[in-house]
Design goal:
Chain lengths: 287, 343
C-alpha cells in the first residue's frame, strides 16, 4: 500500500512538472497556432539560468527562480519578435522549422558556455517529510505545491484580469478579438513571456531532483507535446489533465512494468491514442 | 554576361559536366579523407532526397526521417554482423524493412494533419531511438553494432577501400537523382505538389489523398533506408546515436539551404554544408550556433533556399529582359507609326 502511495506521489510530482511545461506550450499554440519546438530549449535555459544565479552568483533559490523566470520570459518575447512575428503569414511548415532553428541555437549556445556535463543543483529544501511512514522529500512537496499555485494563479490571471482575458479572447476567436480592439502584438508577446516563465519555473522546481545539462529539454518537450495532443491543443485544462495522465502512467508504468522503457510509455500511449482517435482524446469535432 | 552564364546552369547538358566532375573527383582530391567526406556527403544527400519527397513535394514535415535512416542501417548491420548474411541480400532486406515499417507508420500518421503529423513523427523517431538504445538482446544497446560486412565486390573490387565505395555511393546517388527527376516530372510528382498546395483542392480534383501521401511517405522512408544501408556498409559501425533526432534536424538544414522542393537543392545543400562543417573543424560540436540562426534566417528571407532563390532570380531577370525587349520593340513600333503618319 505504501509503495503504491509512494508511486502516486512520484506520479503527482512528474505530472506537476509536465503540466507546467505543457501549459506554456498550449498557451502559445492557442494564440499563434505554432507548435513551439523551442519550448524545451526555453525550459533548459531556465534551469541553467537558475544554476547561474544560484551557484555562480550565490543568490537565494527563490531569487534565482525569479531571475531565471524574467530572463526566459524576455527570451520568449525576443523569439516572438524576431522570428515568429515575421513568419506570421508563412506556410505552417516554416514556423516549425524556425522553431527547430531556435532550439538548435539555444542548445549549442548553452553547451558552449557551460559545457555538456551533467550538473547537480541543490535547493535549500533537502529534508524529507515523514507522514505515517510515507516518505516525501521536501523538494517533491514543493514541486506539487508550486505547480498548484502557478496553475491557480494562471487561471485567476486569465479569468479575472483584463489583460489575461485578452489572451483567452484571442485564443477563442482571432477575428472577434481584433474587432473589439485587442492588440495582437501585445497578446502574442505576453503569451510568449508567460510561457517562458512557466518553463523556467518548472525547470527550477524540477532540477534539484534531476540533473542540469544541455539536452535536458528533449524528453520533457516531447512529452509536453504528447500531453497537449492528448488534452487538445490550445486547451488549458487539457494540458493539466494530460500532464497528470502522463505523469501517473510513467511513475506507475516505470515501477510495475519496466524502468528501462518508462520513457517510451508516453509515446506509445500517444501512438495508440492517435491511431484510434486521430483528433485527440478531449477535442470535439474535427481539428 | 552573368545572366547567360547562369542560364547555362539550367541547361540539361550541364548535368553531364557535374557527373564528369564527380567521376574525376577522386583523382584530383588531395587525400583519401576528402574522398571519404565526399562519399558521406553523397550518402546524406540520398537521405535528403527522400526527405524532399514527403516534406518538399508533399508538404508534410516528417521528423522521423533520421529514425528510418537508422532503421535501414540497423537492419543491414544486424543481419550481416549477427546473422552472417552477405551484404547485398541484407541490403535488399533493409530497403524492404524501411518500406514496410514506413507503410505502417504512414497509414497511421498520415491521417493526422500538419502539426499533429510533425509531432507524431517526432515521437515515432524517438521510439525508434529508444528501442535501439534499450532493446539490448536485439540491438546490442548503447554498445552499437560492430563487424558490419562491407558491400560485396564479388572478388572484382574491394569496397573496404575508400575510392571504390565512393564510386558505389555515387552510382546510387545518380540512380536516386534520376528517379527523383522522373518522379518530379511525372503525374505522381505533380499530384504530390497538388497535395502540398492544398489538401481540399487536391481532393476536389479527384486525388486520393491518403493513397498518394502514403506512397510519398513509403518512397521517402525507402530512400532513408537506402542511405542508411550504404552508411552502415561504409562506416561499418553503428550505434543508437545514429537515430538521434539531431540527424533529422541536420537533414532539414541541408534541404532548406539547398532549396526545399527543388531537384538539385538536396545535393547542393548537403555538399555545401558538409564541406562547410569540414573546413571549420572547430565547428563540429558547435555548428548549431551558426546553423540554428541560419535556418531561421532562411525561412524568413529565403524560404526557397539556394537553388529555389537562384531559379526565381533567373526567371525574374529573363522575364525582365523579355519585357524590356518587348517594350523597346513596342516603342520603336509606335515611333515608326508616328513617322509614317507625319509622312
Amino acid at each position: 500500500m505504501n509503495i503504491l502511495l509512494q508511486n502516486l506521489i512520484n506520479g503527482l510530482t512528474l505530472g506537476s512538472i509536465y503540466s507546467l511545461v505543457a501549459l506554456g506550450l498550449t498557451l502559445v499554440y492557442g494564440i499563434l497556432h505554432i507548435p513551439n519546438f523551442a519550448h524545451g530549449a526555453l525550459y533548459m535555459v531556465g534551469a541553467f539560468m537558475t544554476y547561474f544565479f544560484m551557484v555562480d552568483l550565490g543568490a537565494h533559490y527563490w531569487i534565482a527562480m525569479l531571475g531565471s523566470g524574467a530572463v526566459v520570459a524576455a527570451l520568449g518575447v525576443l523569439c516572438e519578435r524576431l522570428v515568429f512575428h515575421p513568419l506570421r503569414h508563412s506556410p505552417p511548415i516554416h514556423d516549425k522549422i524556425a522553431a527547430i532553428g531556435i532550439l538548435l541555437f539555444l542548445e549549442a549556445l548553452v553547451q558552449m558556455l557551460w559545457g555538456a556535463d551533467f550538473r547537480r543543483m541543490s535547493s535549500p529544501f533537502t529534508g524529507v517529510m515523514n507522514i505515517q511512514g510515507l516518505i516525501i522529500p521536501e523538494q517533491r512537496a514543493l514541486i506539487i505545491a508550486g505547480a498548484a499555485v502557478l496553475v491557480v494563479g494562471l487561471q485567476l490571471f486569465l479569468r479575472r484580469t483584463m489583460t489575461g482575458s485578452t489572451i483567452l479572447a484571442m485564443a477563442q476567436n482571432r477575428e472577434g478579438a481584433f474587432l473589439v480592439g485587442i492588440d495582437a502584438n501585445r497578446v502574442a508577446m505576453m503569451t510568449f513571456a508567460i510561457s517562458g516563465m512557466l518553463a523556467a519555473f518548472a525547470a527550477t522546481l524540477y532540477a534539484p531532483i534531476n540533473l542540469v545539462y544541455p539536452a535536458m529539454g528533449h524528453l520533457v518537450i516531447m512529452k509536453a507535446f504528447v500531453i497537449i495532443i492528448i488534452g487538445g491543443m490550445g486547451s488549458i485544462p487539457g494540458a493539466v489533465i494530460g500532464g497528470m495522465i502522463i505523469g501517473f502512467t510513467e511513475a506507475l508504468g516505470g515501477f510495475y512494468l519496466s524502468n528501462d522503457y518508462k520513457d517510451v510509455i508516453a509515446f506509445a500511449l500517444l501512438v495508440v491514442i492517435l491511431s484510434i482517435r486521430p483528433q485527440g482524446l478531449f477535442t470535439k469535432g474535427a481539428h | 554576361m552573368w545572366l547567360k552564364l547562369a542560364a547555362l546552369l539550367t541547361r540539361p547538358a550541364t548535368k553531364y559536366v557535374f557527373i564528369a566532375l564527380a567521376l574525376v573527383f577522386p583523382l584530383v582530391a588531395q587525400n583519401e579523407y576528402q574522398i571519404y567526406v565526399m562519399a558521406s556527403a553523397f550518402v546524406w544527400a540520398i537521405a535528403v532526397y527522400g526527405l524532399n519527397i514527403i516534406t518538399g513535394y508533399c508538404g508534410q514535415l516528417n521528423l522521423a526521417h533520421g529514425g528510418f535512416f537508422a532503421l535501414g542501417a540497423y537492419t543491414l548491420g544486424l543481419l550481416t554482423a549477427d546473422y552472417s548474411w552477405s551484404y547485398w541480400p541484407a541490403f535488399v532486406a533493409a530497403l524492404a524493412m524501411t518500406a514496410v515499417v514506413g507503410f505502417f507508420v504512414g497509414i497511421v500518421s498520415l491521417r493526422l494533419k500538419e502539426h499533429y503529423f510533425a509531432i507524431f513523427t517526432l515521437c515515432v523517431g524517438f521510439i525508434m531511438y529508444m528501442l535501439m538504445d534499450k532493446w539490448e538482446e536485439l540491438t546490442h544497446g548503447p554498445v552499437g553494432v560492430r563487424n558490419i560486412a562491407p558491400p560485396n565486390g564479388f572478388g572484382l573490387v574491394d569496397f573496404t577501400e575508400t575510392t571504390p565505395i565512393y564510386y558505389l555511393v555515387l552510382v546510387f546517388l545518380m540512380l536516386t537523382m534520376w528517379f527523383i527527376g522522373r518522379l518530379s516530372r511525372s503525374l505522381l510528382g505533380r499530384t504530390f505538389t497538388a497535395i502540398r498546395n492544398g489538401d481540399e483542392l487536391a481532393q476536389s480534383l479527384g486525388i486520393n489523398l491518403m493513397r498518394n501521401k502514403v506512397l510519398a511517405f513509403v518512397l521517402s522512408t525507402t530512400f532513408a533506408g537506402l542511405a542508411g544501408a550504404l552508411y552502415a556498409g561504409m562506416v561499418r559501425f553503428i550505434g543508437p546515436e545514429d537515430a538521434n533526432v539531431l540527424h533529422t534536424f541536420d537533414m532539414i538544414t541541408y534541404l532548406l539551404v539547398g532549396g526545399i522542393g527543388t531537384l538539385s537543392g538536396p545535393l547542393v545543400g548537403t555538399i555545401g554544408i558538409v564541406w562547410l562543417t569540414q573546413s571549420l573543424q572547430f565547428m563540429e560540436e558547435y555548428r548549431m550556433i551558426l546553423f540554428g540562426p541560419l535556418l531561421v534566417f532562411l525561412v524568413i528571407f529565403f524560404p526557397r533556399g539556394i537553388v529555389g532563390s537562384f531559379l526565381s532570380w533567373l526567371h525574374r531577370r529573363t522575364q525582365g529582359k523579355a519585357e524590356a525587349a518587348a517594350k523597346a520593340q513596342q516603342s520603336r513600333d509606335t515611333t515608326g507609326r508616328r513617322v509614317n503618319n507625319n509622312a
